[in-house]
Amino acid sequence: MVLRWHIQRGDIVLPKSVSPERMKSNFQIFDFELDGAEMTAISGLDRGKSGRTGPNPDQFDDIPD
Ligand SMILES: NC(=O)c1ccc[n+]([C@@H]2O[C@H](COP(=O)([O-])OP(=O)(O)OC[C@H]3O[C@@H](n4cnc5c(N)ncnc54)[C@H](OP(=O)(O)O)[C@@H]3O)[C@@H](O)[C@H]2O)c1
């Protein structure tokens, strides 16, 4: 579902899996569409920890709880 959320946002996603079942389910993200409430619910999971991504590893400051 989160892969579908990315696609609808216009993000580029590069899913990779060694599991045939998950490879199949990853292709199925084009078989359904999330509605506005579902998109908002997933977006609401953001905790504002922007330090978890970025080009400089010295500035990576998000240590998981
Ligand atoms: N990370 C980067 O900075 C980067 C940069 C450029 C290119 N790439 C390319 O992008 C691709 C992905 O890279 P990555 O670093 O994300 O690979 P990764 O480290 O192998 O991460 C993929 C993980 O997602 C899991 N997964 C896949 N589908 C899932 C699903 N439906 N549900 C739950 N878990 C799922 C996989 O587990 P299972 O295998 O057990 O399913 C695997 O542990 C690769 O081809 C890589 O070469 C990555």
Give a list of the ligands: NADP nicotinamide-adenine-dinucleotide phosphate
The low-pLDDT segments are none
Give the helices and strands as they follow along the chain. HHH
Overall mean confidence score, pLDDT? 88
Q: Write down the overall geometry.
A: extended
Query: Which percent range describes the beta-strand content?
Result: under 5%
- End-to-end C-alpha gap: 24 Å
- DSSP, total strands: 0
Computed over alpha carbons, the radius of gyration is 15 Å
Structural class: mainly alpha
Main sheet properties: none
Helix residue percentage: 25-40%
The count of helical stretches stands at 3
Summarize the structure.
The protein has helices spanning 2-9, 20-27, 36-43. The chain has 65 residues and is mainly alpha-helical. It has a domain at 2-43.
Textual characterization of the structure:
The protein has 65 residues and is mainly α. The protein has a domain at 2-43. It is 37% helix and 0% strand. The protein contains three helices and no strands. Bound molecules: NADP nicotinamide-adenine-dinucleotide phosphate. Residues 14-19, 22, 25-26 line the site of NADP nicotinamide-adenine-dinucleotide phosphate (NAP).
Keywords:
binds NADP nicotinamide-adenine-dinucleotide phosphate; mainly alpha; 65 residues
Structural topology:
Blueprint: H1 2-9, H2 20-27, H3 36-43
The chain binds NADP nicotinamide-adenine-dinucleotide phosphate.
NADP nicotinamide-adenine-dinucleotide phosphate is lined by residues 14-19, 22, 25-26.
